[in-house]
Amino acid sequence: MRVQYQEAAPAIDLAGQFKLAMGRFASSITLITTLDDDGHPHGLAATAFSSVSMDPASALICINRSASASPVIKRSGLFCVNMLQNNHEPICKIFSQPDLREQRFVAGDWQTGMHGIRYLVDAQAAIFCEVVQEIEHGTHTIFIGNVIDVITQPLEAPLLYMGGRYRELRN
Ligand SMILES: Cc1cc2nc3c(=O)[nH]c(=O)nc-3n(C[C@H](O)[C@H](O)[C@H](O)COP(=O)(O)O)c2cc1C
Fold first, then answer.
1. In the chain, how many domains are there?
2. For ligand 1, atom 6: residue with the closest CA
3. Which of 36, 63, 96 to mutate to test the pocket of ligand 1 (most atoms within 8 A of CB)?
4. Using a 6 Å cutoff on CB, does residue 63 contact ligand 1?
5. Does residue 18 surpass a pLDDT of 70?
6. Is 14 inside any structural domain?
7. Considering the domain boundaries, does residue 38 fall inside one?
């Protein structure tokens, strides 16, 4: 028998509540990097990253279609997930503010990895992916990629985001 639930009280702003709830969810911050037809790097800061499967090794990112790197990922079919450590806050700000777009890939130690994609040398890990599926939902595109290369560094404290601000892991 189906259980009948009472409707929630009116005037609840579901999206606002959802945003508030997501603010309770501590996330590691990444820089997603990709490249255009001329080999120029593009990127943005993102928390919406997850592993998908180990067989095949795969991961997903959720990217707002308004982000300048979104059409570039679509065209190249490539992205790299750079996992930030807690001293990367300044570089994260550069990658999350449109007015600082010109400064991206200037600050920081960047090198060229598989297929010419830039990766941050002192990121905790850099995971290179080839897009195998794209799902449009709401304002975002979910890019699912198979992992094609991985570079890891010694374990450091991650840069975290929670409740609308940067945090450090205390252990
Ligand atoms: C902590 C943090 C997490 C973010 N996570 C995402 C994300 O998962 N996906 C996304 O599309 N944008 C995310 N953003 C927003 C983009 O980084 C930001 O809009 C960026 O300016 C987009 O690139 P653009 O300026 O070149 O368009 C995040 C921003 C911050 C500060």
1. 1
2. 46
3. 96
4. yes
5. yes
6. no
7. yes
Tokens of 33: 């990097």
Q: Is 56 in the pocket of ligand 1 (CB under 6 A)?
A: no
- With respect to residue 17, please indicate whether it lies within any of the assigned structural domains: no
pTM equals 0.94
Report which ligand 1 atom has the smallest distance to the Cα of 29.
Answer: 1
CA distances from 159 to 32, 67, 105 (A): 15, 21, 19
pLDDT in tens, 48-87: 999 999 999 999 999 999 999 999 999 999 999 999 999 9
Q: Please say whether the beta carbons of 128 and 114 come within 8 A.
A: yes
Query: Domain of 96?
Result: 26-50+69-128+150-161
Question: What CATH number is given to the structural domain containing 32?
Answer: 2.30.110.10
Tell me, yes or no, whether 139 lies in a domain.
Answer: no
pLDDT, position 51:
98
| Ligand 1 centroid distance, CA of 34 (Å) | 14
Residue 69 buriedness (CB in 10 A; 0-12 / 13-18 / 19+): buried
In percent, the amount of the chain with pLDDT more than 70 equals: 94
